[in-house]
Specification:
Elements lengths: L2 H22 L5 H7 L13 H4 L3 E2 L3 H24 L6 H10 L11 H24 L7 E2 L1 H20 L13 H5 L4 H26 L27 H17 L9 H5 L8
Antiparallel strand pairs: 1-2
């Protein structure tokens, strides 16, 4: 198990335990509410954590997440493409970072390059759309996030970018160098399905934010309020948080695009294992 797996497992465990406490504890600690909630959902009495509230940041700082995400994921994509087509190895600092977090033996053999390239492109498109929304669509209220949530948001997309690039072969390996034709020859049906699901979910994700922003604007497009009201239209007719549902589908589409396949050597231990004989 590599460092990235341990990190993702640790984060998942923290969030899962926090969720269980929130669900099954009648009066969860106010400090827990302070750290796991943000914006209008934060349920604590104002003034109760005055010393902590001084570290609160405006929710509009979400924009910083996507600035970092676009720059970081764009840079990783550029390094990956240079290594694939021009045999230019990544800089030493990136090699050392990848060596520190990836498994000794990658999950994929050579042949996964197209999957990684498509997944990187889709992630870069996703964070670029989100950055556009932050600048030109979203209308942020005066609610806040705490400094830990802000730090996690900044680190999250860095980890995602590293996770994607670590799913493929080492960029320094001889087999990592391909021509465009060799790369395109790797296409499979799961690539097509993944891209279709991604585009479909991304459209509804974007449109959900458009609907939410319109609730705070007048007919001329000027912001007239920052309060919350009930949205209607598109997936809001079926679920309460279609933007969250669409984002889940976006990440499922990325997993579908990666399309892990089971190889014979992966299950050789099972094939060689002794079997119980059925009594005659």
């Amino acid at each position: 198990m590599n460092a990235l797996c341990v990190l993702w497992l640790l984060l998942a465990t923290i969030f899962f335990v926090s969720l269980l406490v929130h669900w099954f504890v009648n009066n969860p600690p106010l400090l827990l509410n302070y750290f796991i909630r943000y914006g209008k959902s934060r349920a604590y009495k104002p003034g109760r954590f005055t010393q902590l509230e001084c570290f609160d940041l405006p929710k509009r700082f979400f924009t910083h997440f996507y600035i970092v995400a676009v720059m970081w994921n764009g840079m990783l994509f550029a390094f990956h493409v240079r290594s694939l087509f021009w045999r230019i190895t990544p800089p030493d600092w990136l090699e050392r970072l990848l060596d520190a977090v990836r498994a000794p033996t990658n999950a994929f053999d050579n042949g996964a390059e197209l999957s990684i390239v498509i997944a990187q492109l889709l992630m870069l498109l996703h964070v670029t759309i989100r950055l556009y929304e932050c600048f030109f669509v979203s209308v942020f209220s005066n609610t806040t996030i705490n400094v830990l949530q802000y730090a996690f948001g900044l680190v999250y997309y860095v980890i995602v970018g590293l996770t994607l690039i670590c799913e493929g072969p080492d960029m320094r390996s001889r087999g990592a160098f391909l021509t465009i034709k060799q790369l395109l020859d790797q296409w499979r049906c799961h690539h097509v399905f993944g891209v279709i699901v991604f585009l479909w979910a991304s459209f509804h994700h974007y449109y959900s934010h458009v609907i939410l922003s319109r609730l705070r604007k007048d007919k001329t497009g000027h912001v007239v309020r920052t309060t919350h009201s009930i949205p209607y239209g598109d997936w809001f007719e079926f679920v309460s948080c279609p933007h969250y549902l669409a984002e889940i589908l976006i990440y499922l589409a990325l997993a579908l695009t990666l399309g892990r396949t089971i190889r014979k050597e992966d299950v050789s231990w099972y094939l060689k294992a002794p079997r119980l004989q059925r009594p005659s």
